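forwarding from the other thread:

> can someone predict this with magnesium ion?

sure thing
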Amino acid sequence: MARIQQLPPHVVAKIAAGEVIERPSSVVKELVENSIDAGSTRIDIDLEVGGTELIRVADDGHGIEPDDLALAFAQHATSKLTSADDLFAISSMGFRGEALASIAGVGKVTLQSRPPALASGCEVRCDGGDLSAVRPWNGSPGTRVEVRHLFYNVPVRKKFLKSVATELGHVCETVTRLALGNPGLHLVLRHNGKLVYEVPATAGLADRIGLFFGAEVRDTLYEIDSGPGRQRVVGYVADPKCDRGNAKLQYLFVNGRWFRDRSLAHALQESYRGLLMTGRYAVGFLFLTVPPDSVDVNVHPTKAEVRFQENSLVYSLVRATVKARLLRENLVPYLAAPA
Ligand code: ADP
Ligand code: MG
């Protein structure tokens, strides 16, 4: 009988990476979230071949101290949590200290960083878990992470990647969510050296929505705001005439973080009851603010799903706020054709 033994760290990293890093867009999400947590105002994302050959994220954030650079790749190493209590009041995008370790387990990573207060920075490489020495690096303040040859050592996962266009599509969707959740951020996305889009730090959310979804959506938006309270929902919903054949233009955010929630998507749909034909979907961009200790963002490895303490209260708040706003527009209900 085989004896029990603890797995070596590079095997643990590969297993963990399986949960968090599914495709190039997962890497982009983790790296850009780190840049946001670092207080960056501009983030440049460069991809080659849908991100399978290269993903580079460069920011102008607060950087990493040279002495901490190697530690950034260690598992469960984070600067964002200091005690278990912090887990229940998370205000940063990251906190698990897993992303860089996971990415380095399935790709070849170079991390370069310079805190603005230092005259020069340092870099370190990590190939499939093997860490290089820390060397000096002369770059501008901020952090650059380069990931090459994603999944070079995980052939099964590489096999499951789709076409370059599909992988790029996933990255664009990820960047859209991050851009909507952080309207003050200047974002640039390039693919094979060509600009895909540049999103300036726009005046507000409505402009940003217009940038991604066009004037047709931008011009039919109604602003919503439930008003101050323990829970608050603000954002925009579109006129029913802007309806869609799917729910793709229903974006939900809680405390700045994009998430998926069938119940709240249902609340949004319910507010449009009588205004949409069967099989048509509302367009909405809803931003919830709730006390950090009333939402658990630690229920899903990529944090795509969250759990609200006061689930039904949040549901009613969304439905009532959107419905009240639509009522103010005196929209004519859609009349079902007699059977
Ligand atoms: P987490 O984000 O959950 O803390 P990561 O593995 O993503 O874990 O990152 C580990 C640590 O590396 C972070 O806690 C942070 O201190 C540092 N770090 C990573 N990326 C950046 C960045 N772009 N700017 C500044 N610090 C960074
Ligand atoms: Mg992170």
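The two ends are 69 Å apart (CA to CA). thats all i got for now
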